[in-house]
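Query form — protein Biotin-requiring enzyme

QUESTION: What is the three-dimensional structure of this chain?
INPUT:
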Amino acid sequence: MAATVKLPKFGLTMEEATINEWVVGVGEAIEQGQTLATIESEKVEMELPSPASGIVAEHLVAVGETVPLGTPVAVIVADAAELESYEPRGG
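ANSWER: The structure tokens for Biotin-requiring enzyme are given below.
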């Protein structure tokens, strides 16, 4: 089952963040808690941990793009079979 990764709130005043780097690329395996991306908000860089283990199926937000909290930023699927049948949302 695919897991949608949403931009979480890291600070009290955080309202949006910018994707600085995708640490794990599309098609690569990831473990729960592993850094998926680095993000920046209010001049503070943070790591965005993966909420699930699996394979990164899609990045929904481009590097350098700033998005509000709760925005879906990536999709993680359970395994290679699910990746093969995954239809990208276009991000």
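ADDITIONAL NOTE: The chain has a mean pLDDT of 93.
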